[in-house]
Structures are given as C-alpha cells and as structure tokens.
C-alpha cells in the first residue's frame, strides 16, 4: 500500500514538472515573440561633393563621395550627379545643402542648381539660372532656397520643391556666400564686392538691415546660434573680423600671430574659411599661405589664438560634424577637435585623396534621412529665454 502511494506521488510530481517546464518554455517563447525590437542604429554619413575645389577632378572626380563617420570615415559609395557646362565638362561645384522636407540634397554649380533625391540618388531636376549660381542656403523647414547669382547684383529666392523663382533680391554687392539663419527669420547675404553684410527678412524677402562696414570686402563667414554675432573673413587679412548682428556695428579685428601672409593657390585671400564649433567655444580659421588651421578661444571677446594645426594642402573652407567631435577642412583631413590630431584623411574607393570645400553631414534611421548638418560651421547655442 505504501509503495503504491509513493508511486502515485512520483507520477504526480512528474506531471507537475512537465507542466511547469512547458509553461516556462511557452513563457520564454512569448517573451521572445513580444519583446520590443531594438531601435535601428542611426547612421551618420559625410557627403562630399566634387569637383569642390574649382573644377579640379584630381580631388575626387565628379559626383558625391560618401563616407561613414562612425567607421573611421571609410568610403561607402559614389553617387553620380549632373552639373555639366555647355562644353559637356564638369562644372565647379559652388555649394551644397539638404532639405529633409523634400528629401533632397541640392548642389549649386557655376551655372545651375541640381536637386538629387537622397533615397533614390537620382537627379530630379537641374535648372540653369540667369547670372549663374554661387553658394546656396536652405531654410530650416527645407522649403526655400536663397541662391546668389555668380558674383553679380542679386539673389534669387526659390521654391525648394520645384526650383521656381519666387523673388529676386537686388543688392549690387557681388552676390557670393549665403547663410539662412537657424530660426528661419533672417538670411545673411555676403557679397565679395562689398564691405557690408546684408540681412534679408524672410517674411518679405527684402533687405532690412546691414552689418559693418568691415575693413575690406567680405569672403566666407559664420554666425552664432542666437544670431547675435557674425565672424567674417575679409580680403587682405590673415585673421577675421566680428560684427554685431543686432546693432549692425563692427566690433573687433583679430589677427593671426606668428605667421606671415604669403602667396595662396586660390581665392586671393589669406584666410578663406572660418567655422565655429557647435558649442561655440572655439573659432577655427583657415590659413591658405601656411597650410594651417588656427584655433581661437571664443569664450572671451575678442577671441584669443590658442594653437595651429598643419594640414596636407591649402585649406579654403572648414566645417564640423554635428556632434562637434570632428573638424573638416577642405583638404580632406579629419581632425579630432579635442586632441587637435588628424585621425584620418578622406580617400575614394581607389585610395585617391578627396578634397572639397562643399560637404554636408546627413543622418539616416531605417534608411530615411532624419537630420543634417551644415556647410558653414555655424554655432548651435540658442539664446536662453529669460523668465
């Protein structure tokens, strides 16, 4: 009798164990089925448009070279573009910008603007404009393009979706570089035949203010995130000048110390290229004669020179990664902002050097473009609202 009871207990325990095991196994399967999928990793790519140094094909050919920022800036792919002149030769690329609204990257050349779909990588349209085109800039909402004529009297305001002209702004300043303010309310228009920076109101697309005069005609420039200060290169200066965007007044002249002004390969300007780290703590300045990038402390006013970095060729432009970790001079050197060290150099699929004054960062999530940087090295610190 006792042995029968023991056997019954053993059988009941076995049934319980099987049931428990089955429940645990089923629960694990359910957990596996219903567990949330990890969010796709954001991919960060640097789009470098060539020929981005005059029409020199030896610096990367004709098209867009794409590099993986998080994989030591390794070459990813090459995208064919338009941009041929009337003789069928690749034309100088003058500017590049991105619209997330239209999902397009826009490239200006001497004669035209081309609109390239970021996903399909096809040229959707390419339009020539009277007077040519220089360095463009797109509104923060991605709907409007300010397109300077090629060193002539005016800017065209364009519909980013179609390329159609909305309005023409005449400044008679030798239209050249353009920055759309981060708040979308103002656009800053620098002509290389004027010592004054024009400021256009985007509600009316008319010039409502001027900043300056600066010591000479304005070349590349950048602004801070709160749109209170502008830092400009001017002809004849190894250094930069600063203006007040609120009052319109000239503020400071900053000269590079320890280096002489010498001959430059391009631009006829000792300092052609200036950018601000996203946190606005530093100004990085190009020195074309000495193949250097000079770094200034921007936490004091006027900024104070800190150090200089030797690069592999003449720098004619500079911008930064969105996170501020890397500096991108036009030489194709990739500089770690914190250590000042060149960590790599841009090379195409055949290991040829890639250089360009026209590049922009684009972020992708699940194959869709979700964020973009800028070509100018703009400050990203917005004005703090007062209580």
UniProtKB/TrEMBL annotation:
PANTHER family: DIHYDRO-HEME D1 DEHYDROGENASE, PROTEIN NIRF. The lineage of its organism: Bacteria, Pseudomonadati, Bacteroidota, Cytophagia, Cytophagales. InterPro entries: Haem_d1_sf, Host-pathogen_enzymatic-act, WD40/YVTN_repeat-like_dom_sf. It comes from the Bacteria. Residues 1-22 form the signal peptide. Keywords: Signal. It comes from Spirosoma aureum. This is YncE family protein. Gene3D superfamilies: YVTN repeat-like/Quinoprotein amine dehydrogenase.
